[in-house]
Amino acid sequence: MPSLKNSLAVAGAFAAKAYAHGLVQGFATDGTYNQGFILDYYYAKINTGTYPATAGWYEEATDNGYIAPSSYAEADIICHKNAENANTTATVTAGGTVDFYWTTWPESHIGPIFTYVANCGTGADACSTVDKTTLEWVKIDEAAIDLDTQTWATADLIANNNSWTVTVPSTLASGSYVFRHEIIAMHGANSEGGAQNYPFCMNIAITGGGSDSPSGTLGTALYTPTDPGILFNPYTTLTEYTIPGPALYSGGTDSTDGSSTSGSSPSATGSSGSSASATATGSASGATSTGSGAVVSAAGSSSASSSSSSSSSEGDGCAAAARRRRRHARELKARN
Q: Residue limits of the Auxiliary Activity family 9 catalytic domain (predicted)?
């Protein structure tokens, strides 16, 4: 009869293999590294009831490592499987950066990358006790596909040593936030239920912020299984792509082409990104957003909708950062 120790070792090996799909193992706020929630912490809680302090939310992604579209209306889509609040909080300045460090990401798992934030309310420890199902998510960074090259955002992530940098909008009010960083793998998106969501959450307080406290979208209303950016054929040459989820926050970064776009933030009870899309009219990888999503179109450079404002100095900074990131990715790829 196998010992309990050996059984746990086998279980750990299986979970480690499953985790190869990808997870955020750590992140840096303004250059300071913060440990994410890792597999060792899961087993520490199982064995001792506690685990080390980390701003990364507890989760149990020890099977296939992703959330399927069939769970889009369930709590697991918010911060991953059986996620629980983090036990500490990191800090970032408004206008600063958060670098997310993933484990090795498979090249075959093509897809977009998003980052959302949700304000937890008043109190320094608000995010340690907030009910995740009440959080309203605001998208501050999105990257999908470059239609010129048919290159997905995940290729840029891999070229940047499996890391992704997000600029925190300086207009966001200071306070306690949960950051939700996510890749949606689309290698199986040609059949319903084939997309794979990899959402991970971190408690990060924003300091030195502005006065904007936008409303957002509940996690269980971000996507539906039949959204055009969730259910489509990823193996044909795409001439346009509907970016899943709510509109990009004004002042957020559209890393698809390095431009900053703005649109109205959806309400907490609003629909997912499938309902409305804008038409892009410029560079092949341009995107423009409406109140619920955006379309990347090969027709030309993106033009803002009537509700959009002109680029602010902060938006220009976000755009420059995105361009640097994409240029660096291309340089790394060329060296290899």
A: 21-239
